[in-house]
What does this fold into?
Amino acid sequence: MSATIEQQEQPTSNSKKMLTAMVGIGALCALLIVLTYEGTAERIAFLKQEALQNAIFKVLPGIEKTRAFYLDKEGHFQPLAENQKEATVVYAGFTGQGELAGIAIQGAGQGYADVIKVLYGYNPQKEEIVGFYVLESKETPGLGDKIEKDEVFLANFEAMDVKLNADKSQLVNPVATVKSGEKNNLWEVDGITGATISSRAIGNILNESTSEMLPIIQRNISEFKIQ
It folds into this structure.
């Protein structure tokens, strides 16, 4: 009788040991993940900020200084303090003489594979987009990622018309992507053959962002000062 009981208890004892080992391994892996994240988070944040700063100079040609501003609850732009976190932040670019040359604005929207994040430069005097840079993208290599490096596509954003109407409330002509080779107007994005969804996404992102941000910027243009 006792032999039977021992045989029945043995598997149960082994199962408990296996479960304890699995829980221990899982806890150790979780701890390693947390430690790795905490150990690299600051470095990753620094590299992202450095990449953003470099991108600002790319999308605003000719600037020498930058300053970040955030949109407050009253709809005005205020200088952003170091380490301050705000929902809506733009980056003003200035000449060596301290004159406002342009404003870098971030935008985001759904692409083919995932969300695409971009930065574009806006010249408020000419009312044009004067530069464009993809901050984050997981689009298909060789096709969708052409939005980052195709010279013909990037030329769309060297002098893109984003003029507002007389009362500065909305775009005169919405930004729109057209089929490759069919661009006739400066507010259109000449699409990429084979990457229709990705290039159309860029047009949608820019149209949504400019429609929202440019009227606010033009109404408060005097608030962008280097000091």
User: Anything to note?
Assistant: The chain has a mean pLDDT of 90. The chain is about 40% helix and 25% strand. Residues 93 and 212 are 20 Å apart (CA to CA).
